Amino acid sequence: MSETEQEKNAPCVKPGLGGELPQVIAAQMRRVNNLISRRMNLYSKANGVEDITPMHGWIMSYLYRNRDKEIYQRDIERDFSITRSTVTNILQLMERKGYIRRQSVAQDARLKRLMLTEEGARAHEQMMLSLRQTDEYIKSLLTAEENAEMLRLLNKLREGLK
């Protein structure tokens, strides 16, 4: 390997507090995640759903995918690994914005089934459009082989980090 190839393949360094720090995979992934979020926000704004937080979007998607099931707050807590108080605040805001409604359950008045409203379903569709646009843009930056390899590596990392 020539010296220029070695330099090209060497880990990048950036000046940081206290000197030069090598860029690590986790830091690069964080940077890419931030850039993806910015891109998604651009599409979300264009699609009229810029006021929806990513967590609201994930919950709307979850409720949409599970619309034939009875979903309760505890399901959100468990499946998103977030605390009861956090979920309570998120759901209250989503309810105020008209994206979800809570329906009492006959067998237990304490339980409230979570359901998307028509407005929530429309917002979900626009969020999914923004997600598809973001995904298409990312895929356009890579070859078909690179896309396949990227997915393979991301799946491997996800499984290994569980």
Automatic annotation (TrEMBL):
Keywords: DNA-binding, Transcription, Transcription regulation. It comes from the Bacteria. GO terms for molecular function: DNA binding; DNA-binding transcription factor activity. Pfam families: MarR_2. Gene3D superfamilies: Winged helix-like DNA-binding domain superfamily/Winged helix DNA-binding domain. Residues 22-159 form the HTH marR-type domain. PANTHER family: TRANSCRIPTIONAL REGULATOR, MARR (PTHR42756), TRANSCRIPTIONAL REPRESSOR OF EMRAB OPERON (PTHR42756:SF1). This is MarR family winged helix-turn-helix transcriptional regulator. It comes from Candidatus Faecalibacterium intestinavium.
